[in-house]
Every structure is written in structure tokens, then in C-alpha cells.
Write a structure and sequence with these properties.
By secondary structure, this protein is of the alpha/beta class. It has 13 helices and twelve strands. The termini are far apart. The protein binds nicotinamide-adenine-dinucleotide (NAD) and glycine. Glycine (GLY) binds near residues 138, 142, 144, 242 and 245.
Length: about 375
Amino acid sequence: MNSPLRVDLGPRSYDILIGHGLLEKAGSAIAPLLAGKRVIIVTDSTVAPLYLARLEASLDAVSLKLDQITLPAGEQTKSFAELERLLDKLLSLAPDRTVALIALGGGVIGDITGFAASILLRGVDFIQIPTSLLAQVDSSVGGKTGINAPQGKNLIGSFHQPRLVIADTDVLTTLPKREWLAGYAEVVKYGIISDAPFFEWLEVHGAEALAGDKQALAYIVHKSCETKAKIVGQDERESGLRAILNFGHTLGHTLEAEAGFSNTLLHGEAIAIGMVLAMKLSAMRGLCSNRECERVERHLKAVGLRTRAHEVTASWNTARMIEHCYHDKKASAGGLTFILASKIGKTSIFHGIIRSELEALLAHEL
Ligand code: NAD
Ligand code: GLY
């Protein structure tokens, strides 16, 4: 294990542990942080048969009383209906406020479990054990929790920081190739938003991490979490800087909503296309060169990600997509807010992007 990274948030600070074989040691890392002796693991139907027993054994070894709840796998689980079912199951286990929830799974499980933890008995502790690349490099860190609404993605939620994040890179070996790539899109995001040398490193070595090279993998998880921890440490509730983490997300979320939050387009896949669109919008506004834009697209394509909306489906509805953008929580009076790039490694927040700009952007894409 590398030395832990720290998310510095005063009394809400916590460590991110990254390395091999951490699932087996999870119990001894978690036990000292707990107010009580009881934990409830929340996981999904794909991850449970793979990793639940190992986590349970490690919690048993430190004499924690444990229960587990398994939710269906997939984005559709981030719904009111599943949240209600989860809260009902949690309450039927008669927890008190010293209980801690453990999210064992990808971003879906992390988001819904964190949200449930934030409202159960007016808030209980939770621990993130992310098992997808996307969750290890992004969603498990920073305390954004929530579910989707019919009106859009992540529109219901809370900020609720975990007490600990345990990213065991060994568990990624069972992740389907498509999920690796979806997570990798968020890794590339860190290079584009604030770290040009990391982007360059990814251009040369990214494929090694995706092929499972342990060192390269540990490096990209560490580097991504380090950048995210630094940004969240400065702006926990997204009053400014943290918004750059949403690079590619407004249009990405819109594409996801258009695809019905389904398997047609995974979150990270949507972000890859959304990032290319955000680069193009940056170029259209004269902020960055077409060359920078092409470079981002070239790298995403080279690793096997789709970069154009029409590669997913030919039937996007431009007017509806633009409406979705206005429903996205980053919309405000006077136009839309986008994170745009002046070059790879430098992004800023821009307000007042107007409908006709998006129409022009999407006219070439759909
Ligand atoms: P996910 O949780 O649906 O996981 C993807 C799939 O991989 C699922 O089928 C899951 O069962 C499976 N899986 C997970 N770990 C596995 C493993 N080790 N082996 C085999 N299969 C495994 O999706 P995700 O991509 O992890 O996360 C996407 C979600 O994260 C979206 O809802 C997105 O909005 C959210 N997100 C949240 C934040 C945040 O800051 N809270 C940031 C980025 C994304
Ligand atoms: N993924 C965006 C954020 O955590 O702020």
C-alpha cells in the first residue's frame, strides 16, 4: 500500500487507502473509526458474489457485528424506488446512530449508500470501498451522494463525506473491459482540467494501466485521487473551484438522460463524449486551439472510447438535449455554466453560454 492520501476537511477529514490486498485488511482499518461495533454493508448483485465474503471475513476478524443488503446492479438503482427499499431494509435492521454503512461497489452503490447514510436517523457514518475504476478514481472521494430524478441526473442528493475510502486495486481484475474504459474517461479528465504532464503521461502509458499493469494502475488511481482530494479540500461544496471536476458533465449528463440512464451509454462513456464537446465549445469560443481539441479526442479514441454522440445512436434530439442542459443543476439565470479549457491542463468556469451556441455545437455532432 502507498502511504494514505488525506482529504483535508477539518473535522470531516479522512484517508484514502490505495493498494493491493486491502479488502482483506478492511476490518482493521475500519474498526478504529467506528462509534459502535455495528456495520451494514450495502453492495450490488454483481459485486456481492465476488467480494462480499472477503469483506465480511475481514470485519468478522475484528469482531464487528454485520448485516448486508444487496441491491440490483446498474444505474437504474439510483432511483427513489430503490432508495425507499434500501431505507426500509436499513430501518428493519433496527440500527442506532452508531451504525456505519459500508458501500461495497461502483459509483452507483457509493452514491445511493452515501445518500442513505446522510438521511438515516438524521445521518450516520459511511465508508467507501469502491470496486470499479470510476469509483476508485472519482465517485468515492469528495462526499457527493445522491440519486437520479426523472428530470435529470444526480438532482437529489447531499454532501456527506465518508469516514474512509479503501481502494483495493486487486478487485479491478474482474471489471468488464467496457467499465474500465468508462472509468478511464474520468482519469483523463484530471489531466485536462489541471495537469498537462499527467495528460502527457496518459498518452504514453494510459494503455498499460488499461491492460492491467499493476504499477501503472496504482499510479493513475493515486494521481486521480490526489487531484480530487486537493480540489475538494479547497472547495468542499462546489462554491467555485470544485466545479472544474464537472468538465464534460453537462453534455455528458444530457446524453445519459437521452439514453435513458441505460446500458446504451455508461456514465464514463457519456463523459468522454461530453469532454470532446466541451473542448469543441472551448475552441468555438476561441479559448483553445483546434489542435488541443483534436489531441483530447485522439487519446480517448486511441484507448477505445467513443468520442462522438452519433457513434452511440443517430436519433438524438437536439432540442430536448438543450432542454436537459437547462434542467442540469449547473444551469443558472442568464444562460448555462460550462467548464471550458484554454488548453490541456487549464480549465475555468464560464457562465452565460447561450442556446444558439449549443445549437451550433450540436448541429455538427448529431
Ligand atoms: P456502477 O456502480 O454501475 O458499476 C459499473 C458496473 O460494474 C456495475 O454493473 C457493477 O456491478 C460492476 N462492478 C463494479 N465493480 C466491479 C468489479 N470489481 N468487478 C466486476 N464488476 C464490477 O457504475 P460506476 O461506473 O462505478 O459509477 C457510475 C456512477 O457514479 C454514476 O451514477 C455517476 O453519476 C456516479 N458518479 C458519482 C460521482 C460522485 O462524485 N459522487 C462522481 C462520478 C460519478
Ligand atoms: N465528480 C464531480 C465532483 O465530485 O465534484
